[in-house]
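Supplementary Note 3. Input sequence used for the single-chain structure prediction.
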Amino acid sequence: MYLLLAAHPDGAAIQEINAAGVAVAEPRAVRKADLAVVVSGLEKSRPRWVWNRTQDWYPAMLQAGVELERCHDLTLCRAILVHSEFTAHTDYARSAEKLTQDDEMPVPPRVLQPPPPPAEQDALFEDLVPRSTQPSLDEIRAEFAAQQRALGQASKEEGRQHRLKLLLAAESAGAMIAAEMQFTGVPWQEALHEEILEGHLGPRHPPAIGRPGSKLSATSFAGFSTLRS
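The predicted structure, written as discrete structure tokens, is reproduced below.
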């Protein structure tokens, strides 16, 4: 099950499509205030969410308490399909401009925006990028269909098509993991931290006050004797 998610004047638009990118249901407009609840309910069917960029939607979902399992990040997958030797012969790759991800977007796809304000503020799910740069539902559906056609045209020799499919899924999953790590932080145990420090620096001691250690004393005394002689 694939669900498209795109910007809409009322908030967002959601539409179910099949694996080829063909719509199987009418699009549904969802208000910003209802988006988290609607998405949470649809997530129970374990869909793969299809959107332009993970960072446009997922950080706000996490802020609203909604964690998703799978997605298809069109921007990341486009970069792979355009530059992969497995799809270099396809119309999709030939017709696409050879642009890097940095050229396509004002910020690299893995550099996530700061988390949105708490849910009690009206800013939740407001646009993280200017409205003019967000593709419509029709554009997202067309792009997904084009990517699926390019993937289907990849050679099955040596498992190339399957390997490419796994790479697209892994790249999209990585974007979701990055958003989750930014939202929750990286867990760290204080005891383990102290153990690592002691392993490299030695045990922690209070600051020494008084006479210097024997090695420093011997060096200082030898130098003092040399000066006197």
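The two ends are 90 Å apart (CA to CA). The chain is about 50% helix and 10% strand.
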